[in-house]
């Protein structure tokens, strides 16, 4: 019970209902000022106070429903009160952003990785809408493509690389209350840094990661107020590599003078070499970490330091940690420091248990890396690689691990670094990756490894038809024995979990049947009984269940001849016989195909059916008994009645809790009673029918009073083998 999450609150349920039914709850109106269309609620007396407004926006964001049109609904200040707007990683553009900024006074705005494209456009809108109370601004990732650089934007031609310098100082000074600024992954450069440092007098936190700043010297203007600085992967523009090398303004000296810093990130961007090892990208921020950390009294207020990918000596780091007992976080990913004794060995005398560390030295470091670097593709890839090597020793489900992996996947599902809020999120993101990269064999293989889990396939909520279709495509696209084994196993289970209509859509795909039958043919010719053959037979069995069109496709592709060959080649493999006869039974249920079964070799095989031993476990799983009812009326063919009643008796004996109520609810009890009392019924059929009636009567008694039924057996059904 400890792993179960609390049920959603009434408020959460209401929020979800509104988010999921916007089309029914809203309609479009044309504004008087601009004539543009916007959404509004059909009920006019709706009002969301500030907390509810921001909760509503957050839930829309989680559901992937935030776009320009939805923002026109939120722009109505008579219905909503917004102070913090976070729309990161959405298709929001300038029109949606304008609708918000002209109707709400914000203190925080996050438009990172949206369709706005230019950070300069955001600044212009902030200026025009009078957002002088803004304290936090995140424009990360707003970097125009090359083709956009020469376009005439709504606020003038954007020709330079800088995000801020193209706008005059009057505009930037209007935003003088900003305390937290994130311009990472943009074309922000040194002139921009000079302007920001001089025109934002309250700036305390600055993230310039993956930008084009060539000197940190401008930060000396805000050394008495800057508390957080991130420079991860800062690159100088080609031809502008003007890092300060003189002693007075060296990068180490500039950073050392920022004495109020509590957080400092000078980690490097790492990339893979051909051999798989890591190397630092060229033209990155040059920092001699040994020289920096050895400066007497350096950074006395620091509580968080990230030097991942940087070189330094063991003694330097040990001395720095001893002189900074207030440090609570240390990033040493992509380097040897994570393996030093005082960093990872809990038995070491100087080990700091209160220090959170990112690295590769142990599980704690790897999980901390996933927690801290969810937006760094290469770091996530490295951490997941190291984590994968440790998962084989995990005996129980680790919800904490799953959540961290999912977060990494959410941020990188559109990149090949995608590797694997709960298991449902894992599956959905995995399926999305399969759709984006259908021909990337290693990614598809990783996806199959994720999906090939009994718990996921049986218990987790996801679109099983979508999954089956994608796995089917994978099976038919990639020639890899391991992938084939996993794919047929997944299809065999999913085919029993989807609707009959969906099963027919899959099963009638001629290329799939050809592929499955080819696998069966190869295994039969090699006389090789392995898990791949068993799963393939199960897949065909389940795909043909209650699907006449799929049965027809199977027969037309020579499936019946192949299955008769299996009975001959493997005379003692009862497990294979079960699957073969199960599929042939599906064919027998199709009136137009019964004639193809009237063949001497098949009848010779079936003639000994009554001598077979009664199975000890449940050998089949049924969705419904309705297909059996017409068979009970075949008085001219007692063998058909015998098989039908035997099947009912079998499952009701082996799994009474499931099948007895099902048979009663579907009207089967009355049908079996009529069969048992009809004078035309054969004696053997009547005997079995009377046994089924006793089983159903027994199932209605309290468990302690039952005479015939025992607790349900739990062996795997054909769909689960």
Automatic annotation (TrEMBL):
Keywords for this protein: Ubl conjugation pathway
Superkingdom to which the source organism belongs: Eukaryota
Ranges of residues in domain Zer-1-like leucine-rich repeats region: 196-314
The keyword Repeat appears for this protein: no
Domain Protein zer-1 homolog-like C-terminal intervals: 423-605, 608-697
Gene3D superfamilies according to UniProt: Leucine-rich Repeat Variant (1.25.10.10), Ribonuclease Inhibitor (3.80.10.10)
Family as reported in the entry's similarity comment: Belongs to the zyg-11 family.
Protein name, per record: Protein zyg-11 homolog
Annotated organism of origin: Branchiostoma floridae (Florida lancelet)
Phylogenetic classification of the source organism: Eukaryota, Metazoa, Chordata, Cephalochordata, Leptocardii
């Amino acid at each position: 019970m400890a792993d179960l999450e609390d049920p959603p609150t009434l408020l959460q349920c209401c929020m979800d209902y509104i988010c999921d039914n916007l089309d029914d709850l809203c309609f479009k109106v044309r504004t008087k000022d601009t004539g543009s269309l916007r959404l509004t609620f059909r009920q006019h007396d709706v009002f969301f106070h500030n907390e509810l407004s921001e909760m509503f926006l957050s839930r829309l964001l989680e559901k992937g429903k935030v776009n320009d049109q939805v923002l026109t609904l939120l722009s109505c200040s008579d219905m909503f009160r917004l102070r913090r707007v976070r729309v990161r990683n959405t298709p929001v553009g300038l029109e949606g952003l304008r609708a918000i900024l002209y109707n709400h006074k914000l203190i925080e705005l996050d438009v990172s990785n949206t369709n706005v494209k230019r950070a300069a456009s955001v600044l212009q809108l902030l200026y025009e809408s009078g957002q002088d109370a803004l304290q936090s601004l995140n424009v990360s990732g707003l970097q125009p493509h090359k083709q956009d650089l020469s376009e005439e934007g709504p606020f003038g031609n954007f020709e330079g690389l800088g995000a801020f310098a193209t706008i005059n100082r009057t505009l930037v000074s209007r935003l003088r209350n900003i305390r937290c600024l994130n311009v990472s992954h943009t074309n922000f450069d040194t002139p921009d840094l000079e302007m920001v440092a001089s025109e934002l007098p309250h700036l305390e936190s600055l993230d310039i990661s993956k930008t084009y700043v060539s000197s940190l010297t401008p930060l000396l203007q805000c050394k008495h107020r800057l508390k957080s600085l991130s420079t991860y992967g800062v690159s100088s523009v080609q031809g502008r590599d003007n890092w300060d090398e003189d002693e007075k303004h060296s990068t180490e000296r500039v950073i050392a003078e920022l004495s109020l810093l509590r957080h400092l990130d000078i980690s490097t961007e790492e990339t893979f070499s051909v051999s798989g090892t890591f190397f630092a990208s060229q033209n990155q921020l040059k920092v001699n970490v040994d020289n920096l950390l050895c400066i007497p009294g350096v950074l006395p207020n620091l509580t968080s330091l990230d030097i991942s990918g940087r070189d330094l000596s063991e003694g330097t780091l040990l001395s720095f940690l001893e002189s900074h007992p207030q440090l609570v976080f240390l990033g040493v990913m992509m380097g040897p420091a994570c393996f030093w004794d005082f960093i990872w060995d809990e038995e070491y005398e100087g080990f700091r248990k209160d220090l959170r560390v990112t690295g590769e030295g142990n599980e704690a470091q790897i999980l901390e890396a996933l927690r801290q670097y969810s937006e760094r593709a290469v770091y996530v890839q490295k951490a997941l690689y190291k984590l994968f090597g440790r998962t084989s020793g995990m005996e129980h489900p680790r919800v904490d691990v799953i959540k961290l992996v999912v977060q990494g996947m959410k941020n990188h599902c559109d990149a090949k670094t995608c590797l694997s809020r709960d298991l449902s999120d894992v599956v959905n993101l995995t399926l999305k990756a399969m759709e984006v990269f259908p021909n990337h064999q290693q990614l598809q293989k990783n996806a199959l490894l994720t999906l090939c889990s009994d718990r996921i396939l049986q218990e987790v909520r996801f679109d099983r038809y979508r999954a089956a279709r994608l796995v089917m495509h994978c099976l038919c696209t990639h020639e890899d024995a391991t992938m084939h084994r996993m794919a047929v196993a997944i299809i065999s289970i999913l085919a029993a979990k989807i609707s009959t209509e969906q099963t027919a859509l899959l099963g009638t795909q001629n290329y799939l049947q050809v592929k499955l039958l080819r696998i069966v043919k190869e295994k039969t010719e090699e006389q090789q009984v392995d898990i791949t053959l068993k799963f393939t037979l199960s897949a065909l069995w389940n795909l043909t269940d209650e699907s006449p069109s799929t049965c027809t496709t199977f027969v037309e592709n020579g499936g019946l001849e192949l299955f008769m060959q299996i009975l001959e080649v493997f005379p003692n493999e009862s497990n294979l016989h079960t699957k073969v006869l199960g599929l042939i039974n599906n064919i027998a249920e199709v009136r137009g195909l019964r004639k193809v079964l009237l063949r001497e070799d098949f009848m010779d095989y079936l003639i000994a059916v009554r001598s077979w031993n009664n199975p000890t476990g449940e050998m089949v799983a049924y969705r419904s008994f309705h297909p059996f009812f017409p068979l009970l009326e075949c008085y001219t063919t007692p063998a058909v009645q015998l098989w039908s009643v035997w099947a009912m008796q079998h499952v009701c004996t082996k799994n009474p809790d499931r099948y007895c109520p099902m048979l009663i609810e579907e009207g089967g009890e009355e049908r079996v009673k009529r069969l048992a009392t009809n004078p035309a019924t054969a004696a053997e059929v009547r005997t079995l029918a009377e046994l089924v009636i006793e089983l159903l009567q027994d199932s209605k008694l309290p468990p302690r009073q039952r005479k015939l039924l025992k607790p349900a057996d739990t062996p795997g059904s054909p769909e689960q083998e």
